[in-house]
Fold this protein.
Amino acid sequence: MDRYKEIIPDFEKFKEVVKTHQPFDCRVNSLKTSVEEVKQHFKDEGITFEQRDWNKNFLKLDKRPGKTYAHWLGKVYVQESTSAVPPLAFDFSKKDVEKTKVLDMCAAPGSKTTQISGIMENKGEITANDVKSQRTRSLLANIYRLGCLNVKVTEQDARDIKENGGSKKYDKVLVDVPCTAEGNLREKDYLKKGVQVKDSKNMSELQRQILEKAFKLCKKGGEVVYSTCTFSPEENEMVVKDFLDKGMLENPGFSFPHSKGITEWNGQTFSEELRKTVRVYPHQIDSGGIFVAKFTKL
């Protein structure tokens, strides 16, 4: 992790926090219940919890929630809290959500798909895609358990998704790409030393290909949100910078603690536009790590 010393604020605190275990988080499924009802479920089961101040739909627990009554009923979804950040970058404030078409290109196991379904209140249409049958099985199971009625599932390489024209294009495309996952270092000890640069560079080629396809699938003026759960600039800003001619970067306007994207790395200088991207580090909101870039397609 030392190679990130110059870009991670309060690096010493970062190093201390990543030595601790990742909190047990769950998201309340608004399609089936309310936060208050889930709180009562956990009180009845003797589970201690704390409501996340930056996202009221998230509860931080003292134990894993996977075997709780609320989980089995689909009232909560076990989800690392920063995993919920990318969907929050989309603007769902418009009244025509019933006509909104969303594509989640790399959707399994379904945390972000089901979150978006809840935000849309089961209206509109979501296409959730993943590449392997084992992954789509878990995706389908979670969609069913959480009662997401506005989702259909496809199974193919994201780079091969068919491109449709005109009104058949998507209003919003989530590009939560495969990555080296350094943001999960509190759960996986082998990540605490960081990944090799060559692995990030190799991964970035796939990421670029998927993001390229996302712009082809999105309507002009639509939203494309790119995200990873890694700290590597090679997979984050250095991928995003290659698409500034296809989309205009937007500041998502998050109010919780986070950092801006970087504009310099290893002697290279990038566009100031990249400061509109978002980095969240584990010590900022007691979580994992995430990177988010929001585009409006040109």
Observations:
- The chain is about 25% helix and 25% strand.
